Amino acid sequence: MTKCIAFQGELGAYSHQACREACPDFDVLPCATFEDAIEAVRSGQADLAMLPVENSTYGRVSDIHHMLPESGLHIVGEAFVRVRITLLAVKGTKLEEVKTATSHPMLLGQCRSFLTEHGIKRITGADTAGSARVIAERNKPSDAALASELAGEIYGLDVLAKDIEDEGTNTTRFLIMAREPDLSRRGEGKMMTTFVFRVRNIPAALYKAMGGFATNSVNMTKLESYMVGGQFTATQFYADIEGHPEDENVKLAMEELNYFTDHIRVLGVYPSDRPRG
């Protein structure tokens, strides 16, 4: 029986591309919201969910940071997708015929130079793949969309130009979520551990909590804070570290962290998807 992976967005979205690259043998389930994708896994409708957590240009996806701890799901993998932007139009269109480009505001902002050079007006759309679908339905050579090449393939559009983004390094990191945790060591590279914690209300608690990672040579690749429960006094921290919870240095660092916190929850243990310096 073929397994299924859920994602937020329409077919052809960059999240769909992440699913195709990371889980090529899985069927995909497009969902209207992140909550719907999470619920699809919780209910058994899907085996996994692919959720964007951060982008190299625009930073964290704040909704996800708030949802993950209470989702009941566990991180079992990660995937990095280079956001390669293509200009898509109906079959037979020439670049000089295009007058407008529709897409999500983020993609429009990333292609200012190309669009300005070619005198193409920017039109805000709901999302990238949805914009491609609308352009295909409209069937006007003057109207184009900015989306993934995958979206062009799905909606039968021609690629008039590719890799037109101003920054050639724009990358989105996705987390792969499952109902059950997988704490086994797997893959040939480093293991990653993600957790959330709240420090105790004592002076320099965060500084002291972080000391254990430094003294035990544990590389922390991400540390972010955000408010919980609508209170300025309730700050939760989200962290990624290199290593497995059974590694001796990670054990020692987590023991020290535990001393200065009143809440720790491991969200997942998974193989790193890329080299980390």
UniProtKB/TrEMBL annotation:
GO aspect biological process, one term: L-phenylalanine biosynthetic process
> What is this enzyme's catalytic activity, as reactions?
prephenate + H(+) = 3-phenylpyruvate + CO2 + H2O
What Pfam families does UniProt report for this protein, alphabetically? PDT (PF00800)
Q: Which UniProt keywords apply?
A: Amino-acid biosynthesis, Aromatic amino acid biosynthesis, Lyase, Phenylalanine biosynthesis
Q: What is its EC number?
A: 4.2.1.51
Instruction: Please give the InterPro entries that the UniProt record associates with this protein.
Output: ACT-like_dom_sf, ACT_dom, Preph_deHydtase, Preph_deHydtase_CS
Q: Which PANTHER family would you find in this protein's record?
A: PREPHENATE DEHYDRATASE P PROTEIN (PTHR21022), PREPHENATE DEHYDRATASE-RELATED (PTHR21022:SF19)
Question: Can you give the residue ranges of the Prephenate dehydratase domain?
Answer: 4-179
What GO molecular function annotation could you give as one example from this UniProt entry? prephenate dehydratase activity
Q: Pathway it acts in?
A: Amino-acid biosynthesis; L-phenylalanine biosynthesis; phenylpyruvate from prephenate: step 1/1
Q: Which Gene Ontology terms of cellular component type are present?
A: cytoplasm
Question: Per its record, how is this protein called by name?
Answer: prephenate dehydratase
**Which enzyme class?**
lyase
Q: Specify the ACT domain's residue ranges.
A: 194-271
The record lists the organism as Donghicola tyrosinivorans
